[in-house]
């Protein structure tokens, strides 16, 4: 499935519907388009969402660095947009993506690798790649 960017007029109209919070952010959930696997949650500003919709390469907003964060720019673990969906309240975005490599900074495919169990948190998956290889530091 190939992503097709909206026209500039349609893009502007769609972005006007989105309800960003008081900080100018919206929650963005990334899901693998063909398997349904939930990969991660991050935040987007209007600028990040616009860039994502224009280019088809997912861009988030890093709250810790206070700047745009193009997924994979330092790790090579890129997300290509297949489809973007807005929820019923217009305050959350679901990004159906084609994830290249792992999505989590811990080296795992998904950030949701721990389950709440009767004895405590249970690790469901091991890292597929050493985080040092991704970012040059421990996760």
From TrEMBL:
Q: Which GO terms describe its molecular function?
A: magnesium ion binding; phosphoribosyl-AMP cyclohydrolase activity; phosphoribosyl-ATP diphosphatase activity; zinc ion binding
Subcellular localization(s) per the UniProt record: Cytoplasm
* Names of required cofactors: Mg(2+); Zn(2+)
Q: Where is the Phosphoribosyl-AMP cyclohydrolase domain?
A: 40-113
Q: How is the cofactor bound?
A: Binds 1 Mg(2+) ion per subunit.
**Pfam families reported in the protein's UniProt record:** PRA-CH
The yes or no answer to whether the keyword Cell division is present is: no
Which keywords has UniProt assigned to this entry? Amino-acid biosynthesis, Cytoplasm, Histidine biosynthesis, Hydrolase, Magnesium, Metal-binding, Zinc
Q: Can you quote a single GO CC term?
A: cytoplasm
Q: In which pathway does it act?
A: Amino-acid biosynthesis; L-histidine biosynthesis; L-histidine from 5-phospho-alpha-D-ribose 1-diphosphate: step 2/9; Amino-acid biosynthesis; L-histidine biosynthesis; L-histidine from 5-phospho-alpha-D-ribose 1-diphosphate: step 3/9
Known catalysed reaction(s)?
A: 1-(5-phospho-beta-D-ribosyl)-ATP + H2O = 1-(5-phospho-beta-D-ribosyl)-5'-AMP + diphosphate + H(+); 1-(5-phospho-beta-D-ribosyl)-5'-AMP + H2O = 1-(5-phospho-beta-D-ribosyl)-5-[(5-phospho-beta-D-ribosylamino)methylideneamino]imidazole-4-carboxamide
RNA-binding as a keyword of this entry, yes or no, is no
Where along the chain is Mg(2+) bound? 87, 89, 91
- Location (main, coarse): cytoplasm
Q: Which residues bind Zn(2+)?
A: 88, 104, 111
Q: Which GO terms describe its biological process?
A: L-histidine biosynthetic process
Q: Which SUPFAM superfamilies match?
A: HisI-like
Enzyme Commission code(s) on record: 3.5.4.19
Its function?
A: Catalyzes the hydrolysis of the adenine ring of phosphoribosyl-AMP.
Q: Which family does it belong to?
A: In the N-terminal section; belongs to the PRA-CH family.
Assembly with partners or alone: Homodimer.
What protein name is recorded for this chain? Phosphoribosyl-AMP cyclohydrolase
What organism, scientifically named, is this protein from?
Answer: Acetobacter cerevisiae
Q: Which gene encodes it?
A: hisI
């Amino acid at each position: 499935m190939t992503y097709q960017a909206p026209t500039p007029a349609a893009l502007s109209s769609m972005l006007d519907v989105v309800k960003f919070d008081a900080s100018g952010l919206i929650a963005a959930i990334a899901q693998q388009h063909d398997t349904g696997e939930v990969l991660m949650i991050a935040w987007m500003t209007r600028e990040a969402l616009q860039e994502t919709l224009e280019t088809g390469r997912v861009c988030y907003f890093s709250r810790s660095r206070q700047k745009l964060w193009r997924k994979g720019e330092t790790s090579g673990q890129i997300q290509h947009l297949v489809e973007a969906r807005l929820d019923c309240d217009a305050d959350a975005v679901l990004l159906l993506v084609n994830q290249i490599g792992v999505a989590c900074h811990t080296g795992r495919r998904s950030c949701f690798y721990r389950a709440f169990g009767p004895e405590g948190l249970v690790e469901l998956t091991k890292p597929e790649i050493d985080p040092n290889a991704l970012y040059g530091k421990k996760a």
